[in-house]
């Protein structure tokens, strides 16, 4: 393989947007186009050293972390082939004030899901590869243990996910619920459909990889159900017209080696966050066969509420083959309902505390107090008391929050002890 000639930095902010800068009209190479930060290696430099130098020279920021090596590809200009490696990075500095390199760039922007066409402005050769690379970075998410990549086909920069999708469906558990495996040709068609869905609907499914080992863990995330499908119509009738505006469905499928570790819940939380934070959706549903109790348990852990049942093609509890009218359970996530639940918990806590002579105060803290909470955010309530042993040695008082179970106790210094509880079927308070 030829040596690396140049590097690119896909700098993301907290909103998962990618930093772009416009090349000046006087540049000989690709004048007037929007580009990512990057450049050629100097003699003796490693790609990582060149990356750090280019970021500081072109923006004034300093690389904090190289999150992921996203792409390793070759491109040609005026008869010369260059090998480029692109990295997803975070940086330190004032992200509102990049220092544009004089004579090379004249404007900057942050590209989110709705800004990807910037990469095609003044692009007279019609080359979409950089645009698709930025789209991949904008749509990728990371959890504590997973890297979630939007499913794509090969595009000249990325190798695509056909082989991994085919491998996913060879897993017996996955094949059982999706009624079969995929051939290489079927996998190629399927990834093209997923990629088209991302472009059409601004949302789609991810493939999930272990962040440490890179091993395939599964598939999951969101999809936008066709408005005219019988299943979407049945769900809209069940949960109401608010969901029908976006028709977002949350799902997951994990290989056997990834099951039983809480990764489905982790993946589901990322999907809910994408729906409510990125897409600003009002509600999301998840549904599965009544027989799939494992997935229903995940839906409950995510805080989704049981909405009822519909019938569609799938596995029935009392049949050994796929049925045309199997019962499916439907669960609903609604941010407004979640906020109302939080208000009710806080009100209950305040009323209870008012009747306790040894309680000095009750406070809501964290993201719900700051009005920055997400659908999956925990509710943090601080109880101030002169007799903490009364409340740490006896769990009966937790009944103020309804039916709860203690899932963790942790001491944070001499004056604060965390008692983490869940309500109902393991949904975090």
Automatic annotation (TrEMBL):
Residues 2-134 form the Nudix hydrolase domain. Keywords: Hydrolase. Residues 146-327 form the N-acetyltransferase domain. SUPFAM superfamilies: Acyl-CoA N-acyltransferases (Nat) (SSF55729), Nucleotidyltransferase (SSF81301), Nudix (SSF55811). Belongs to the Nudix hydrolase family. This is RimJ/RimL family protein N-acetyltransferase/8-oxo-dGTP pyrophosphatase MutT (NUDIX family). It comes from Kribbella aluminosa.
């Amino acid at each position: 393989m030829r040596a690396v000639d140049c590097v690119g930095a896909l700098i993301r902010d907290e909103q998962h947007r990618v930093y772009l800068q416009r090349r000046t009209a006087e540049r000989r190479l690709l004048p007037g186009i929007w580009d990512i930060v990057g450049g050629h290696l100097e003699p003796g430099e490693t790609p990582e050293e060149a990356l750090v130098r280019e970021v500081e020279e072109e923006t004034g920021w300093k690389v904090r972390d190289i999150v992921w090596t996203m792409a390793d590809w070759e491109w040609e200009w005026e008869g010369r082939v260059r090998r480029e490696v692109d990295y997803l990075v975070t940086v330190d500095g004032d992200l509102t004030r990049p220092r544009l390199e004089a004579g090379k760039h004249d404007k900057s922007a942050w590209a989110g899901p709705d800004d990807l066409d910037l990469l095609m402005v003044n692009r007279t050769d019609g080359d979409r590869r950089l645009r698709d690379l930025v789209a991949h970075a904008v749509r990728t998410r990371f959890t504590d243990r997973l890297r979630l990549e939007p499913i794509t086909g090969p595009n000249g920069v990325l190798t695509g996910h056909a082989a991994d999708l085919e491998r996913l469906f060879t897993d017996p558990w996955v094949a059982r619920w999706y009624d079969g495996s995929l051939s290489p040709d079927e996998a190629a068609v399927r990834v093209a459909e997923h990629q088209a869905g991302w472009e059409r609907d601004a949302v789609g499914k991810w493939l999930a990889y272990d962040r440490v080992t890179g091993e395939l863990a599964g598939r999951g995330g969101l999809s936008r159900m066709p408005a005219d499908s019988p299943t979407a119509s049945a769900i809209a009738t069940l949960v109401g017209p608010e969901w029908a505006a976006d028709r977002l469905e949350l799902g997951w499928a994990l290989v056997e080696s990834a099951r039983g570790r809480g990764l489905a819940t982790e993946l589901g939380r990322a999907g809910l966050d994408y729906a409510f934070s990125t897409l600003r959706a009002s509600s999301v549903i998840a549904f599965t066969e009544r027989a799939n109790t494992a997935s229903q348990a995940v839906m409950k852990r995510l805080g989704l509420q049981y909405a009822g049942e519909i019938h569609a093609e799938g596995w029935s509890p009392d049949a050994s083959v796929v049925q045309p009218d199997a019962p499916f359970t439907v669960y609903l996530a609604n941010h407004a309902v979640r906020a109302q639940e939080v208000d009710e918990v806080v009100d209950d806590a305040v009323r209870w505390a008012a009747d306790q002579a040894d309680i000095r105060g009750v406070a809501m803290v964290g993201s719900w107090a700051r009005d920055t909470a997400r659908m999956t955010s925990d509710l943090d309530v601080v109880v101030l008391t002169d007799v903490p042993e009364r409340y740490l040695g006896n769990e009966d008082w937790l009944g103020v929050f309804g039916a709860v179970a203690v899932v963790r106790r942790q001491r944070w210094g001499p004056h604060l002890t965390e008692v983490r509880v869940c309500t109902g079927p393991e949904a975090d308070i």
